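Cobyrinic acid ac-diamide synthase, Gallionella capsiferriformans. Tokens?
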Amino acid sequence: MAVIAVFNQKGGVGKTTTCLNVTAALSIAELCPVALDLDPQGHLTLASGIKNVSPDKSMAGFFKHKTPLASLLRDTPRGWQAIPAVLELAKIDALLGGDPQAANLLKRGLNEDLALTGAPIMIDCCPMLGVLTLNALLASDRVLIPVSADFLSLQGVHRLDSALNVLETKLKRKIARRIVVTRFDSRRKLSFEIYDKLKAKFGDVVCNTRISETVGLATSPMHGQDIFEYAPKSPGALDYRALTQELWDTDFFV
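Tokens:
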């Protein structure tokens, strides 16, 4: 199974919401996903229902003390496993930024501890292109890019695509990617315009499934729940189920 980084340098585009709910959909399909929270804000950790995390039992413990990833796994209330984040992760750039080998730590850790499980691994990235995000991108087989249906996000995805192209040149390998449009409001002409522009520029890289902007998706993380637990019949649940199926059908998780 694939290692998938969910990444966008722009905030507020549904990055954590997408990582949470695709992970949940994979869990419902009994694929036993593992979620890694690489964002010091720890929003994926909270939304997964994980509380009271000490730094040494989080991703910070892996980067600071080389704690094996397998020993950091936590069971979530909904059945999948996760490695949580804490604010201590924000120090990793300062601690490891001068080490040229630091960007490969996560890849080595996954190969040593989790590769044999065969489970899909979802990584919620920090929204900055630093040590943490480079670790995620170098360890990943795929990148899922949530883009909200607004003008500034449209501009940001072009810069992000360029950055990934530069990284591909340095890595000497292609980085498979898919773009999913989030916060889509069918009442707004702009939403359709943004989607059409992305399709015109990136073609089949853009998912056909669009994630509607709904109250359920906004409020479910406050309760430590994914959308399938919080509002299983809501448009948000239908959208994320359809997105996961679309990605599965195109071998994104393989």
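The chain has one domain: 3-249.
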